[in-house]
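The methods section describes the discrete structure representation at length, but only in general terms. Since the whole study asks how a given chain folds, the encoding of that fold should be made plain. An entry of this sort, consisting of the sequence and the corresponding backbone structure tokens, reads as follows:

. . .
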Amino acid sequence: PLVSGSRSSKTFKPKKNIPEGSHQYELLKHAEATLGSGNLRQAVMLPEGEDLNEWIAVNTVDFFNQINMLYGTITEFCTEASCPVMSAGPRYEYHWADGTNIKKPIKCSAPKYIDYLMTWVQDQLDDETLFPSKIGVPFPKNFMSVAKTILKRLFRVYAHIYHQHFDSVMRLQEEAHLNTSFKHFIFFVQEFNLIDRRELAPLQELIEKLGSKDR
């Protein structure tokens, strides 16, 4: 359950929903239906006759919303005091830069980093020139690289939750939810080769474990 009144309700506002009746909404419904079958490898495949950019866009919005909710359940445990740096275990530390407002990477606490990150992603998702919601509006030429950057950054939130807050996730009995969401995310980025292997290193063991159960 989401904790009302914590800052998650203010900061982590979900992306505007994919409009009902739209083609993207149909795609989302298709994704949910195939997920229900339990075969995640199959669920992430591009449905026949569909546009790859559109499939990636719909799923990126969905992962953003999932991570938003998952992080929202543990924001009270992710504080300036508990997480003064944005890390994924002792070997990986992330510094924030978005290339426009903050050009030189800054060291900041995990809650601040994740706030920057989620706000940045939301701005991209709300940009009609990047993520067109109207039928027939073409995706921009740089769509793939934008989507890859978004997914690479969203991965860091999973990595932080797993490394620094998994005990809280267990106490809240959210681990099945987190694992399913992360597994879906990983199978998706593997299917379309969207995140560089080096970037996935902080959760490499977990990724191998999740993959080996499905061969």
